[in-house]
């Protein structure tokens, strides 16, 4: 059951990050002036999708709390490094982010490190 908590933590974390990036891309760049920034942020904070991203982050925190009751943090936390790998893949396919071999190689080492940490 503990691994389900970790999986849900990762799932909600990724959803929150992807949905925020997607929606902010649609809303445009942050304006230069202070009043423009306040107006932009106010509009963004009332956006349904952005609110869902914040709720997702909160749910991820609740699942993380549950995971902490089942695992030592040194055993559970390496799984969190899988989030960048999944965000990388989702970002390329759904957000049109750029693929580079450097990013891919870096993610390979993150996953390798996770496997080593979990196994030993």
UniProtKB/TrEMBL annotation:
Residues 5-118 form the EamA domain. One of its GO terms (biological process) is lipid A biosynthetic process. It is found in: Cell membrane. The keyword Ribonucleoprotein does not apply. GO terms for cellular component: plasma membrane. GO terms for molecular function: transmembrane transporter activity. This is Undecaprenyl phosphate-alpha-L-ara4N flippase subunit ArnF. It comes from Albibacterium bauzanense.
């Amino acid at each position: 059951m503990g691994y389900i908590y970790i999986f849900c933590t990762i799932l909600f974390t990724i959803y929150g990050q992807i949905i925020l990036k997607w929606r902010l891309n649609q809303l445009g760049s942050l304006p230069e002036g202070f009043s423009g920034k306040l107006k932009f942020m106010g509009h963004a904070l009332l956006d349904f999708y952005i609110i869902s991203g914040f709720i997702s982050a909160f749910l991820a925190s609740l699942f993380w709390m549950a995971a902490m009751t089942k695992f030592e943090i040194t055993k559970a936390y390496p799984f969190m490094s899988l989030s960048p790998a999944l965000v990388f893949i989702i970002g390329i396919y759904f957000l049109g982010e750029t693929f580079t071999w450097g990013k891919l190689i870096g993610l390979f080492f993150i996953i390798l490190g996770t496997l080593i940490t979990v196994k030993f």
